[in-house]
UniProtKB/TrEMBL annotation:
Name of this protein: DDE Tnp4 domain-containing protein
Keyword entries, A-Z: Hydrolase, Metal-binding, Nuclease, Nucleus
InterPro entries per the UniProt record, alphabetical: HARBI1-like, HARBI1_dom
Chief place where the protein resides: nucleus
Amino acid sequence: MFSHESSDSDSEYEEDIEFLVLATLIKKKEIKRRRYWVHPVNNKRESKGEFHCLVKEIENDAQRFHQYFRMSKAQFEEVHSLIEGDIKKIHTKFRKPIGTKERLAVCLRFMATGNSFRSLGFNYRMGFATVKIIVEQVCNAIWKNLAPIVMPQPTEQMWREIAKGFENVWHFPNCIGALDGKHISIICPINAGSTFYNYKNEHSIVLLALVDAHYRFIMVDVGAYGRNSDGGIYQESLMGKMFESSQLNVPPNKPINQNTEPLPYTTVADAAFPLKTYLLKPYSKAKLVNNNSNKIFNYRLSRARRTVENAFGILRARFRVFQGPLQVQPNMADKIVLAACCLHNFLTQDTQETQETLMDESEVSDGNGLVDIEPLNRNPSQEAIQVREAYKTYFVSPQGQVPWQM
């Protein structure tokens, strides 16, 4: 009899425990349930949001509009017309979608200022996650629609036009681009360990860029791990592999003077890259002692190579999101960089705008999200050495020298 009563009490006790556990789980689910479909503050977006108030006020002020978006109103409208179909959302009976122009405005403002998604969410009266999604979608649309227009696959004729620009502006014949790479700082990625940790003790992805004589990106390669050796980054990049295998429609060798042998079209780079027949780098410091011809070659090469440094400077001055570490994960950082390069080319079509941006570089803060890549020491081929010697001989000859190079 005693044992039967004890069994009944134990079962009642177990039922009570199960009930308490179930009640606790239900309570937790209720706590996690969203309190709002749309926050009351965000419901006033169309009456008090920054796009519907401030942006509408500055639409007729060309200077302030340009300062706000880093582009003119006509350029804004042109970009919008190109990407509108990819960022437009369906209007449902539940709620009205955010307009395409407002989506573009949020993305451009993020790139122009580098403000956090939370800050932009407060300014535009949007959800913080919504801002992040908008920036990512607009960056994808910009790369998809602008890249074929402002950064197409080069043809033989395009390479010849680029070489003509370098010869006319920078006095470097047969040059089809200035090559350089930059570490773009990012926050420590989730579960990445030291994969993105570079020699500057920062986490980064690498942007490799080939630039023409007018500071426009010809080709870009984004996303290499910051910890990789810089020679390896170039060798393993799609750009490096295509140059090495002659898959880029580069024209055949051409004489740089009437009385000289044909020389290959070549790119110019700094000491971080390997010397190739299609890639010239400066002589090392050890080879400059009491050797004026080597110094002259380095000077002429650096004049042509500065275009890529200027392009990075313009990119950073125009889009201040690159003045510090990108507060996003690497996958999204790649998309932001690609979109920024496309917009850079699109805006650099206007020479006056480029000059104004260069003038504004003096106002840029000391913080820098773009860091030089580390020099590389590697033995070049004999053919590459001979090509560099031929260019040096031309630069010190009466036909190839410029009056101020001494």
